[in-house]
Amino acid sequence: ILYNWILKNLTISFNPCQYEFSKLNLTFSILSKKKLNFLVNNKIVNGWNDPRMPTLSAYKKKGYTAKSILSFCKNIGISKKENIIDIMMLESYVRNDLNINALRVMGVLNPLTIIIKNMGIQTEMILIQLHPKKKKLGFRIVPFSRKIYIDKYDFKEKFD
């Protein structure tokens, strides 16, 4: 409002056009710099790049790619009207980008050792692709023996 008052009271022949757009609001996210600053200053989070923060540096630390964030921004576009974008939409762009480009590895979070009794003691080396659709990304060698690990939540002693 002050900016417009100054333009009206200046004696210049050309007034620049000014457009104001709404800010990006995401569901389940606090984007107020004042509130985020409070979290950082009171050590509730470990800085601006803490993965719980809705900042670009935090998203980078979480594994969000620049390409996925750019695709998200291009898709939602700009608006003068205030709106709230579902965070799931951003996460969808991240998943799509990672699905195309990320290497695949496996891990067992709650390991339970299983011994396969009807298999010999030899260890076989199995060649596994790092990406299911992109052979050019390479392979890794995984040992396979009678001793394997499964998640303890996938094991059941008695069948229903």
UniProtKB/TrEMBL annotation:
<dbReference type="GO" id="GO:0006425">
    <property type="term" value="P:glutaminyl-tRNA aminoacylation"/>
</dbReference>
<dbReference type="InterPro" id="IPR050132">
    <property type="entry name" value="Gln/Glu-tRNA_Ligase"/>
</dbReference>
<dbReference type="GO" id="GO:0005829">
    <property type="term" value="C:cytosol"/>
</dbReference>
<dbReference type="Pfam" id="PF00749">
    <property type="entry name" value="tRNA-synt_1c"/>
</dbReference>
<feature type="domain" description="Glutamyl/glutaminyl-tRNA synthetase class Ib catalytic">
    <location>
        <begin position="3"/>
        <end position="98"/>
    </location>
</feature>
<protein>
    <recommendedName>
        <fullName>glutamine--tRNA ligase</fullName>
        <ecNumber>6.1.1.18</ecNumber>
    </recommendedName>
</protein>
<dbReference type="Pfam" id="PF03950">
    <property type="entry name" value="tRNA-synt_1c_C"/>
</dbReference>
<dbReference type="InterPro" id="IPR020059">
    <property type="entry name" value="Glu/Gln-tRNA-synth_Ib_codon-bd"/>
</dbReference>
<feature type="domain" description="Glutamyl/glutaminyl-tRNA synthetase class Ib anti-codon binding">
    <location>
        <begin position="102"/>
        <end position="157"/>
    </location>
</feature>
<dbReference type="GO" id="GO:0005524">
    <property type="term" value="F:ATP binding"/>
</dbReference>
<dbReference type="GO" id="GO:0004819">
    <property type="term" value="F:glutamine-tRNA ligase activity"/>
</dbReference>
<keyword id="KW-0648">Protein biosynthesis</keyword>
<keyword id="KW-0547">Nucleotide-binding</keyword>
<keyword id="KW-0067">ATP-binding</keyword>
<dbReference type="InterPro" id="IPR014729">
    <property type="entry name" value="Rossmann-like_a/b/a_fold"/>
</dbReference>
<comment type="similarity">
    <text>Belongs to the class-I aminoacyl-tRNA synthetase family.</text>
</comment>
<keyword id="KW-0030">Aminoacyl-tRNA synthetase</keyword>
<dbReference type="InterPro" id="IPR011035">
    <property type="entry name" value="Ribosomal_bL25/Gln-tRNA_synth"/>
</dbReference>
<keyword id="KW-0436">Ligase</keyword>
<dbReference type="InterPro" id="IPR020056">
    <property type="entry name" value="Rbsml_bL25/Gln-tRNA_synth_N"/>
</dbReference>
<dbReference type="InterPro" id="IPR020058">
    <property type="entry name" value="Glu/Gln-tRNA-synth_Ib_cat-dom"/>
</dbReference>
